[in-house]
């Protein structure tokens, strides 16, 4: 048994958080947007690199700002989010929506502020979803990836939940990185490092 990991999947409404999670867990895809409302928790077991992990995947968690004109200053107190208990974050934006990218930027800032002083940083993977709509994207992939990786020091990946493209890969990378942080004795595993073929599967 490898242990347990808590993952939060966050992002603006409609970017595809639920679609990504459902593709990963059940191989299905919601064509219609049904706002998630209250946060949902999924508890799969996954096999990663030969060890079994109990995952808690939270779809939204109340960390988002109030819907409406409010900005990050109107977000709930970080103490209420239990962000400190989260081992890894997936911050999802829609590659066709600059607003959703700004949203992720603000979320990442908020997560950093919520971390208690001296606590190790939880890995953050920024995910550009809806890659199948590539022709409508608002910015070049290379520039966005460079900003996120070098400027924000987060991982970056693009996927299409609709076509199940890179969905497994995003969870595999995130989990590997979270495990490296938990066990620094394995420095060879890096979020943006060499990717092995699928050694991550649901049980
Ligand atoms: N073209 C395309 N549409 C997608 C993709 N992923 C999700 N969608 C669509 O985007 C809409 C919103 O998807 P959801 O997964 O419900 O988004 P969400 O982020 O969970 O939304 P909230 O629950 O409101 O926060 C749905 O109509 C999906 O079909 C994708 O990869 N490509």
UniProtKB/TrEMBL annotation:
UniProt keywords, alphabetically: Nucleotide-binding
Top-rank lineage group of the source organism: Eukaryota
Annotated Gene3D superfamilies: P-loop containing nucleotide triphosphate hydrolases
Transmembrane segments: none
Protein source organism: Pipistrellus nathusii
Protein name in the entry: Ras-like protein family member 10A
Region Disordered, residue ranges: 59-80
Lineage, highest ranks first: Eukaryota, Metazoa, Chordata, Craniata, Vertebrata
Entries under InterPro entries matching the protein: P-loop_NTPase, Ras-like_GTPase_Reg, Small_GTPase
